[in-house]
Design goal:
- The chain has about 170 residues and is α+β, with helices and mostly antiparallel strands.
- The protein has one domain: Gcn5-related N-acetyltransferase (GNAT) (Aminopeptidase).
- Helices cover about 25% and strands about 30% of the residues.
- It is built from 6 helices and 9 strands.
- The strands form 2 sheets. A 7-stranded mixed sheet has the order 1-4-5-6-7-9-8.
- Strand 4 and strand 5 form a beta hairpin.
- The longest helix has 11 residues.
- It is globular.
Length: about 170
């Protein structure tokens, strides 16, 4: 694939669920527990219903990136107060739930392009939590302008890093 191949961005539909879930499952396998009800220290617990919620629940902003009609990455998050409060975020922040890129398309601009699609008109910052052992993700976020936040509860900080990026406002 050429680095000049254009990405197409669109809202997902329910027919995208399997591909979105497959990318999530394969891309995060070392940090992901699929279809289990209790979390482990450094792992996320997620199932297809969670991904389906990102597609159909209007509280979430979700977008997919395609190359040659194939989904190569996707992003989901929210600036809705009920979602923000679940994550301990402030009003006017955007909480990034998931950003996932197919491993074959990493380092080709997909992730950065997805981040640029986040609607930040009324947001002061984008917030994301990532497992502290996922140094690849930490480097990606730092390269995209995110900084590590301090002062998080000790229980959280044992396994997670919260990062923030100030939004450009007009």
């Amino acid at each position: 694939m050429s680095n000049h191949t254009p990405f197409i961005f669109r809202e997902p539909f329910i027919g995208d669920l399997d591909r979105m879930y497959d990318i999530l499952e394969s891309s995060l396998s070392q940090f992901l527990v699929v279809n289990e009800t209790s979390s482990r220290n450094n792992q996320l617990v997620i199932d297809k219903g969670t991904v389906e919620g990102y597609i159909i629940d209007n509280r979430y902003f979700t977008i997919v990136s395609e190359v040659n009609s194939q989904i190569v990455g996707w992003l989901s998050g929210s600036s809705r107060s009920e979602i923000l409060s679940e994550h301990g975020c402030n009003p006017r922040e955007f909480y990034l739930e998931e950003i996932v890129v197919d491993s074959a398309f990493r380092r080709k601009g997909v992730g950065g392009s997805l981040l640029s699609k986040i609607p930040t008109d009324d947001s002061l910052a984008i917030i994301v939590d990532t497992p502290s052992i996922n140094q690849q993700a930490v480097r990606f976020y730092e390269h995209a302008g995110f900084v590590k936040l301090t002062g998080m509860p000790e229980k959280f900080s044992e396994n997670w890093i919260r990062m923030s990026k100030t939004c450009e406002t007009a």
